[in-house]
Amino acid sequence: MEEHLTVGRVAELAAVSVRTLHHYDEIGLVPASARTAAGYRAYSADDVERLREVLAYRRLGFGLGEIADLVDGPTADAVAHLRRLRGLLVEQRDRTAAMVTAIDRELEARALGIRTTPEEQLKVFGAQLYEVIGSAYPATRRTEPRIATRIWDALGDARTVLNVGAGTGSYEPPDRDVTAVEPSAVMRAQRPAGAAPCVAADAGRLPFADRSFDAAMAVSTVHHWPDPLAGLREMRRVARRVVVFTYDASTAGWLQRFWLTRDYLPEFAGLLADRPSLADMTRAIGGRAEPVPVPWDCADGFFEAHWRRPEAYLDEQVRRAVSVWTRVGPAAEQRAVNGLREDLASGRWAERNRDLVALDAAELGLRLLVA
Ligand SMILES: C[S@@+](CC[C@H](N)C(=O)[O-])C[C@H]1O[C@@H](n2cnc3c(N)ncnc32)[C@H](O)[C@@H]1O
Prior knowledge:
alpha/beta; seven-stranded mixed β-sheet; three-stranded antiparallel β-sheet; 12 strands; 46% helix; binds S-adenosylmethionine
């Protein structure tokens, strides 16, 4: 007969109370599959494995109801569970490490009698995002050739190009003299060998003289800047031509336009709050906005990229390379993914989005600003 651990022993090993284990058993979250001769609960290896998952999700801050959905979901495979847990824990660890560093810096500053500004104090909750999620980026984020062509055409005959918020450099034109700006060390470290030189700086304060480049470009980054308009004005200052790939967050229909945000992730709306309008952004560079349809087989795995390949959003790797999923938080993410999974299995997604199958490209609010 398979070896079982008594409830007391499991409680001791896991550092939880026997009462907690009784409760988990009673609500069916971690049932003890056997009893000892004396009638005590006894746990098999499978029971312990399930308990380990439950406790790890608990530690990540999930509620018991959410955990029940997670451990009973279709990802029954233990390795898949471990991978997902690992990803969530690493993310939490990195976020905590970034906060510890920021607090250390503030302590040092205070010891020197320097008071940090409210902005600096709050920065720890936002600006470190790519230090946390950046390592997952290269798995699915790469050059989409049709979008690259639009960007490179818009650069015109510019010979020297500044790429702001450059990340791993997916859209840097190979035939021009490029200088990259990227504040995240994690992202800079992932730039391929031979990539353009990269300066650690912030879009809001570009360390270059006025008009030092023929053109400045920024791709999928403006929404991360604490003050997007200030950054766009900086690009305008240092370059004669400006090309920005971004999205139109201002039209009322934005949330409705994409089934993912409309039907599964309404929390996305919260991320758009206090983003500048497209009109304000084009005004900041003195240019025009052109729509950029997203091809159905878009090679760059940004948030909207898989609009005709909904199963992709069930893939943890796809989600981890897109900041939206981290920014809405794990509870909203899991709810959205579970809802989508169910609708894909039941045919509800296909029914609701019947008209998408015939499209080769979709207008999802992405824009190229050119000045
Ligand atoms: C979605 S990635 C895009 C990277 C690259 N442009 C691309 O298209 O692959 C966003 C990038 O913006 C950078 N970023 C965030 N805040 C920034 C800021 N204040 N100034 C400049 N870049 C910033 C991030 O570190 C990250 O590398």
